[in-house]
Amino acid sequence: MDCVMCGMCTPVCIADIAPNLVALYVSRAQGAHFTEKPLGLDTRIKEIQDGRFNDEWAKILKMTEKESGRSLRNRQVRRHWSMANRQWWEIRHMLPLLTLDE
Predict the structure, then answer these.
(1) What is the model's pLDDT at position 102?
(2) How far is it, in rounded angstroms, from Cα 72 to Cα 77?
(3) Is residue 100 classed as helix, strand or coil in its secondary structure?
(4) How far apart are the first and last CA of the chain?
(5) 3-state SS class at 77
(6) Which residues make Cβ contacts (< 8 Å) with residue 71, sequence separation at least 6?
């Protein structure tokens, strides 16, 4: 049976632990220690340590709540439109394939 992390097993656990939290810890530990690191991870860590993104962080930290909300909304709108354009492009190029030749 798959765990949905509801925590209902915690009160009845005879070991007096929270099994759902143990499973969460095991999952995170497995991901951190027993999986391969992404190819560009070392490069990105070096960029962060060298201060490549300091200007962007300073800009973000100086924003007011209103400005950050506006920036987030603009980003979400741009992402939505780029996804919509990509989906339209895929549909438009698949239409000739979907026509029935009789």
Answers:
(1) 46
(2) 9
(3) coil
(4) 50
(5) helix
(6) 63
Q: In a 10 Å sphere around its CB, with 0-12 CB exposed, 13-18 middle and 19+ buried, how is residue 96 labelled? A: exposed
Residue labelled with tokens 């549909």: 91
d(CA 40, CA 47): 11
CB 71 within 8 A of CB 63: yes
CA distance 85 to 3: 38
Please give the structure tokens belonging to residue 67. 């400005």
Pair 33, 42: CB distance under 8 Å: no
| Confidence bin at 10 (pLDDT 50/70/90) | very high
In 3D space, the residue among 15, 41, 18 whose CA is nearest the CA of residue 3 turns out to be 18
Instruction: Give the separation between CA 7 and CA 3, rounded to whole angstroms.
Output: 9
What type of residue sits at position 49? Answer: Q
